[in-house]
Amino acid sequence: MIVITSVFGNIMPTEKKTDCCIDNCPGVLEEPSLVCIICGASVHPACFKSSVRKLAEYPTSCHDEVFCSSNCCTWYGKEGFDREAVKKEREELNTLLKKQLVALAASAQVRVTHRIDNKSRQMSKPMMIRRLIGAKFGEVEQQSASNKPSAKTIHDKFRLLNCLFSDEVGALAATADDVSRADMDTGAVGGNSTYWKLVEQRFNEGFPDNSVDGPVFADKIHFMHPSIQNHHETVNPAMHGTFTSEELRKMWKEIQKDYD
After folding, report:
1. Burial of residue 74, with CB atoms counted within 10 A of its CB: 0-12 exposed, 13-18 middle, 19 or more buried
2. Could you tell me the CA-to-CA distances from 123 to 73, 144, 212, 249 in Å, in that order?
3. Which neighbouring-strand residues pair with 35?
4. Contact status, residue 3 vs residue 13, Cβ threshold 8 Å
5. Any idea what the Cα angle at residue 253 is, between residues 248 and 257, rounded to 5°?
6. pLDDT tens string 184-211
7. For residues 15-35, b (16+ Cβ closer than 10 Å) or e, as one string?
8. Residue 175: which residues within 8 A CB-CB, separation 6 or more?
9. Closest by alpha carbon to 55, among 36, 32, 34, 74?
10. What's this model's pTM, rounded to 2 decimal places?
């Protein structure tokens, strides 16, 4: 896509970045040239290779077949799954205005914002459509429709360490094991304590914009080490599952055992 701009009176062509349907697409200087074989979503080759192709849900029977999300990876080869129904739903949603999609997403409790360059931004229309399709046909990426625990990954462990050693959570660590009679009466102990509930919130939702640690603190690698640099995949704490406070507490104990 070419945009014409004026610089000091001269007309100059400027390339414009385009978004594809994959979450957190940063924008690429080319049109999405790939198509998801399940739902028909448009995908940049670079986003597919750096994100979806590396998902644990990517079918082992596939080589480089294109999918746009963990949903579509999971739906591939699923007995009784109706691809045509998904594509029809996409066509119908595509006739709606973006503001109508936002209203539909709100009623369906589907998140249609994401973080790009450390800022919260509204998703593109194709990305909103993909999210709505995922919600309607089950197996929502954020596990809101599933009670199955997330599989722990190296990304989850580093994200948990980020949260535990943040200034906000770290300030509460000294009293994390203190239990009052009121705590015992209400069951706010162990994984249900105020401390671990805060860890759960920061792990799953990230840090607020006005927090002492900053909104992207949980998403980054804050130090480098050969064991990190030489790991078989790039460690990325922003690629995380969803865990309860008790599951995070158990994960922390497992990490501690690794260093015993």
Report:
1. buried
2. 21, 19, 27, 33
3. 42
4. yes
5. 145
6. 777 777 878 889 999 999 999 999 988 8
7. eeebbbbbbebeebeeebebe
8. 195
9. 74
10. 0.45
Degrees, nearest 5: CA angle 143-144-149: 40
DSSP letters for 107-176? HHT---EEEETTEEEEPPHHHHHHHHHHHHTS--TT-TT--SPPPP-HHHHHHHHHHHTSHHHHTTGGGT
Residue 12 parent element (H or E): strand 10-15
**What residues have CB less than 8 Å from 188, skipping those under 6 apart?**
182, 194
Contacts 24+ apart (CB under 8 A), 30-35: 31/1, 34/66, 35/66
Contact 215, 118 (CB under 8 A): yes
* Secondary structure element (H or E) that encloses residue 10, with its range: strand 10-15
CA distances from 4 to 10, 14, 52 (A): 10, 6, 33
pLDDT in tens, 145-184: 344 455 788 889 999 999 999 999 999 988 888 878 877 7
